[in-house]
Amino acid sequence: MLFITLNTYCNKGGIETFNQYFINGLKDNQFHYKSVSLYDKKVNDSNSQIACSGSIIKLIWFIFLNLRNSNTIIWGHINLIPLLFLFYPFFRKKRNILIVHGIDVWNPLFKNKLKILGVRITNEVWSVSNYTKKRFIENYHYPFEKVHIFSNTIKPKQSNNDSPYTNSSIKILSILRLQNREKILSVLRIIEVLPQLLKKQDIQYFIIGEGNYKNNLIQHIKQIGLSKQVHVLGYIDNTAPYLEHCDIFTLLSETEGFGIVLLEAMQFAKPCIAATNTGSEDVIRNGESGFLINPDDTFELYQKLLLLIENKDLRIKMGQKGKEIFESTFTYQHFCEKQKQLLLF
After folding, report:
1. What is the residue range of 255's domain?
2. Backbone angles phi, psi at 219, to 5 degrees
3. CA distance linking residue 263 with residue 293, whole number of Å
C-alpha cells in the first residue's frame, strides 16, 4: 500500500503526530507499504519512506513509481486529493482512502472544485473524530456509511518526572501552537477570567507553544499586569513534567479536529476543560473526565475552573476517569487494532 502525506517529520502538530503513528502502525501490523511525503526533507526509514522536499514533481514521480505494487492508496490530507482526480485513470482500479482531520474539511472556504471531484471518487474516508465526520459529510455531501472513525493515539510518556514548577499554587496548563487567531483566543479566554479566580486562590497559568503570535501574547500579558501569574514558555521538547505536575489542563480552541494533547493530559490523570462543537467531544466525557463548555461563555468557564480549583477530590476523580478512558480506548494498541481492522475490511 501507498501512504501519501503533506508532512510527517518536518513539522510538529496533530496531523504530523498522527502520520508518524500511522506509519509505525503499518510496520507493527506487518503491512507492506511505502510512504511519500511532499514537504519532508528527511525520513526515518529510507527503505520505506520517501521525502520530496517540497517538490510536487518528485511527489507525482514517486507515486507513479510505487503504484504498480500498491493496491491501496491512503491520502493523508484532503489538500492532496486533487491528484486523485487529475490522474484518476492511474488510480481508478486501486482502493483510495482519504483521511480527514479537522478544519481542513470543516471550512467551506477551503473547498475547491478539484477537492470536491477528488473526494467524490474516493472509496472511503477515515475521520479522526465523529465531529469531523459530521462536518465533512455536511460540507462535501459524502455518504455517511462510507466514513469510518479512526481516532488518534499517543504512546505513554515517561512518568515520575521532577516537577518543573517552583511553588505550590494551582497550576493550569495549555499546550498549543500560537499560530493563528483561534489558538490565541483559546488562551485569552483563560487569561480573561484569571483576575476573578485570583481573588479565590493562588493560580499560575502556563502556556507551552511557539508561533507567530507568541510575542504579541507576551506583550498583552504585560500590559494587563499578569506577568507574575501567566507564563508563556515557548517550545518545550519534553512536556511530560509539565503535564504530570499541573492540576488542570485546558484546550479551548474551536478548531480542534480531535485534540491529541488531551490524551497526553489524560495519560497523567489530569482533568481537562475543552470546547464543545469540536473533535474534543470524542475525547472528553463531560462531567466525568472534565468539562466541555461553550468557549464564548466566560461565566461558564469561570464556574468550571473555580469548581476544579476549589475541589481537589474532584480533580483527582476526573483525572483518574480520564486515564481510564485513555487506557480503554486510545492506546497505541487500540490504534493498531483499528488500523488493521479497517485495512482488512
Report:
1. 170-329
2. -65, -40
3. 18
